[in-house]
Specification:
Elements lengths: L2 H22 L16 E3 L5 E3 L5 E4 L5 E4 L19 H10 L22 H52 L8 E5 L5 H10 L6 H10 L9 E5 L5 H9 L8 E5 L6 H10 L5 H10 L29 E5 L4 H15 L2 H10 L3 H14 L6 H12 L11 H14 L5 H7 L17 H8 L8 E5 L4 E5 L2 H28 L1
Helix pairs in contact: 4-5, 7-8, 8-9, 11-12, 11-15, 12-15
């Protein structure tokens, strides 16, 4: 058979197949002008069929299968492959009619129809795109949830790690300073109260952790009251051991009272006589300082001109000590008491008065020594402050107790005699305040310096017998008061002598 006849046979077979599809199914869409029928297809010179309105080209391959080229985006029949055997055309149609979205096979297993579109083209486009968008959106939401959960888990893990590390460091005292403090545990304090006391004193950093450890060890009822020398460098176990084991439990206690104005040497002798500690060792450790108290940071940097570096900082009070107590522990207890007495309000008043802590204590020690009673302290303080504020006219304070301190305390106890130190304490020789305190003032004297009477006095003269103090604004008035006091004392002496003679 020649080529023309073969082409003719192929054309007839193709028209037959397409005709059946057109008559049975595709013709229904012609009403909407969405599908072109075989009548719309014309053969060109090259043996191809072209749909004139759409420009689609229908051709046959070497296996006598028809296929289309340049498929449009409309609702036309999209026939990827159609078997040329006309006996299976009905089967192809029936199969395609059942399901338009899947590929179909004829009875002999050959691929027949890929897909037929009969819907609106825009609807098909939207349908194809909507599902992927939803799936993408779901995946995005799922990813965000996973990321949030991951961040939360990591945050919790980091917080727990930091907490565990902090508790561990506090329990084992890792990286904590090696300083010592006197911690007082009151009678009847429970674990939580003791934990808070230790936290306030800077011994521990996590009171709840300490309380839990103490309760786990069943130490809740074993803590003992009293004063304990503790350090932040102690682990929880060491702290608990010290608080539950009183090293002075078998020791005898003794009360020691330091009166207002007592000097450091006399106080040391009191401790030695009471059996608390050696006087010289006490003086050494007390002047050494470094007991981590707040007031120590307010002390002057240089003490070269002082006799006793910490004279004035032994607060007059009644203390309970153990017999044969370590001097350092004694000093820490006294330091702590002074630290508690000098409150933030007092520091504010010192700043307002233009005085340092050391200047306040030094002047208060002079007022304490000069005053016969509490009522006269504020007027005496006003005299010294008026002189300090008018040093051109009154450069020297001229207080008798300062000379007494030099003769009775410094000279008998100084290792190398020093006129410079003697003169720096004697206010008849030195200008302004002496180098240091001449005793340990009480709170009344300290408050008198910070809240003096408003006067114009520059002089005062005290009758030591009657405890009366007479004030004057001028030197003439002061000299008159001095003569008056001397007359009073002479009269008192004469009366006493007469009484003695009568006796």
């Amino acid at each position: 058979m020649d080529n023309k006849e073969k082409n003719s046979d192929k054309d007839r077979m193709l028209e037959e197949i397409l005709g059946q599809f057109n008559n049975k199914n595709i013709s229904n869409h012609n009403k909407n002008n969405s599908v072109k029928t075989v009548s719309d297809i014309k053969r060109n010179d090259k043996g191809q069929y072209r749909s004139e309105p759409t420009g689609r080209v229908y051709s046959t391959d070497n296996n006598n299968r028809a296929y289309t080229e340049n498929l449009p985006k409309t609702g036309h029949v999209n026939t990827r492959s159609i078997k040329t055997d006309t006996s299976n055309t009905e089967n192809i149609y029936n199969t395609a009619k059942k399901d338009k979205s899947s590929p179909y096979n004829s009875k002999d297993g050959t691929r027949t129809v890929r897909q037929v579109y009969t819907e609106n083209p825009e609807d098909n486009k939207q349908g194809r795109e909507s599902n992927p968008r939803k799936r993408k959106k779901k995946r995005s939401v799922r990813l965000q949830v996973v990321l949030i959960l991951t961040v939360i888990i990591f945050t919790i893990a980091i917080c727990l790690s930091v907490m565990i590390i902090s508790v561990g460091k506090d329990m084992l005292a890792i990286g904590k300073e090696e300083s010592y403090k006197i911690v007082t545990i009151p009678e009847g304090a429970d674990v939580n109260e003791i934990s808070q006391i230790l936290y306030d004193e800077g011994i521990i950093k996590i009171p709840k952790a300490f309380a839990i450890v103490a309760k786990m060890g069943d130490y809740g009822t074993q803590f003992k009251p009293g004063d304990f020398e503790l350090s932040p460098s102690f682990a929880y176990e060491t702290i608990i051991t010290k608080l539950t084991t009183d090293e002075y439990e078998e020791s005898e206690t003794v009360d020691v009272t330091f009166i207002e104005g007592v000097d450091l040497y006399t106080a040391a002798k009191q401790l030695e006589e009471a059996g608390v500690c050696d006087a010289d060792r006490f003086i050494y450790y007390f002047n050494a300082g470094g007991y981590d108290c707040k007031f120590e940071s307010s002390l002057p940097e240089s003490f070269s001109s002082k006799f006793y570096r910490m004279e004035g900082y032994l607060f007059p009070d009644t203390y309970t000590f153990y017999v044969d107590m370590e001097p350092e522990l004694v000093c820490r207890k006294i330091y702590k008491n002074f630290d508690n007495k000098i409150t933030a309000e007092l520091y504010t008043q010192m700043k307002k008065a233009g005085l340092t802590l050391d200047e306040t204590i030094t002047l208060a020690s002079i007022v304490q020594a000069e005053a016969g009673d509490t009522d006269s302290m504020k007027k005496i303080a006003s005299v010294f402050l008026n002189r300090l504020n008018n040093q051109e006219e009154f450069p020297k304070l001229e207080s008798d107790p300062t000379g007494k301190y030099v003769n009775e305390v410094i000279k008998p106890n100084i290792e190398i005699q020093s006129d410079a130190i003697f003169d720096s304490y004697d206010t008849y020789i030195c200008n302004g305040l002496p180098s240091g305190a001449i005793g340990n003032p009480g709170m009344d004297a300290i408050l008198a310096v910070l809240n003096p009477a408003d006067t114009d006095y520059y002089f005062f003269y005290a009758n030591l017998d009657t405890k009366e103090t007479f004030f004057a604004e001028t030197l003439e008035e002061h000299e008159e008061n001095e003569r008056m006091v001397k007359e009073q004392r002479e009269m008192a002496n004469n009366e006493n002598n007469e009484e003695d003679e009568d006796y």
